[in-house]
Amino acid sequence: MPSFKQQVREKRHSEEGYALSVRRMIEPESVFGQIKNNRGFRRFLLRGLPKVSVEVGWLSLAHNLLKKMAVDQKRKAVGQG
User: Fold this and answer.
1) Domain spans in the chain, listed from the N-terminal domain onward
2) Where are the beta strands (DSSP E) in the chain?
3) Can you give the pLDDT of all 81 residues of the chain as single tens digits?
């Protein structure tokens, strides 16, 4: 029976595993980059895991609302033109 590491390695090198790992690498990075660069977030203001979790929640909510607003404005502008 192959080791767990060997099983994971084989799964990762399969076509399906490679596609999943590529998708996983790309998706979250842009969000963190946008929050850091575009929103100016560099440090947590609060300390402790429960408080940081709330702060991450607020950051995520603000990011998603601003993103939705931009999509809605773009959709509205296309509808008028």
Assistant:
1) 1-42, 45-81
2) none
3) 678 888 888 888 888 888 887 777 666 677 888 888 888 888 999 999 999 999 999 999 999 999 999 999 999 998 875
